Amino acid sequence: MPSWKNRLQPLIALASRHPRLLALFGFVSGLASFLLVERKESLASLIALVMLVSWVWLLLENLLTRSLSRWLGLELPPPLLRYATQMIHQESLFFVLPFFFITTTWNSGQAAFTSLLGLAALVSIVDPLYYRWLAPRRLAFMAFHCLTLFAVLLTTLPLIYQLATPQSYRLALGSAVLLAFPSLLGTLRGQNGRRWLALLGLLAALGGAGWWARAWVPPATLWLNAAAVTLEVDGRNREAGASLKRISLAQLQARGLYAYTAIHAPRGLNERIYHVWQHAGREVDRIPLEIHGGRQEGYRAWSRKQRFPANALGRWEVRVQTEAGQLIGVLRFRVVE
């Protein structure tokens, strides 16, 4: 045991003298982790697991520091713990941000969620904002903490456990709501009965709002590598024909139309998605497709619509959605005379 202590003490002393190195490490390692995942997908599970282990440390920080003190006689200075927390926030946010930037449909409500993540990442690297504005505000810090964990779980669960997007979303949302429990309990005042009722109401509202807003949350590990609205698809080679932005009504009714998508998904992930055909904002068809992860260029699948209403003129969209309703991308075309 003393040998472990002797080895760890110099590292603790170094980190205590230069605590900002931890924050810098978090920023650099987060970006590096994403780049490694992009270059070699087989590393994705390992890197995602490291992220989750970091969060286990963060969530059990008090218990683990007491255990280190009791078992190894190691006392971790409070400033070091604060910078370690900041490091995990930075590492997590800069790991997940590139995923969300890629998967966001920017002309939809998803832009708000990803922009919020970007703002959180900015706050995490600006010490005056993080320590003087965010950290002293308990509810704001709790929201920051929950948002970061939510984004991390949305990204890592499909990579590690090959969970489908709806499962990952439910688990991530449930974990974020549970994480909010202690902070909300500490802010509520009043008699025990009313306090607990108010707490349960707040948690239910938080969970309900998170589920209602799921269409605004990008599916972190699913994105379109290629997409086309076309008159033909080569089924043997799984290739789309010429992409169309406009099509005549006569041609549409005579030949129908394909919506072709190549969707990047993590290796081992099997997911049901939907091509939702909409005319002037109204859903007219919903076609399920099964996709399988692992192909770098994306899993190629398509739907074909042959029956169109007589008044099919105007703006059409094919919204590519997960089973939970999260938007992967949108294909647009217009039907003209």
From TrEMBL:
Q: Which residues form the DUF2914 domain?
A: 271-335
- Which Pfam families has this protein been placed in? DUF2914, DUF5924
* Coiled-coil stretches noted in the UniProt entry, renumbered to this chain: none
Residues annotated as transmembrane: 21-37, 43-60, 108-127, 139-161, 167-185, 197-217
Q: What is this protein called?
A: DUF2914 domain-containing protein
Keyword terms? Membrane, Transmembrane, Transmembrane helix
Domain spans labelled DUF5924: 1-259
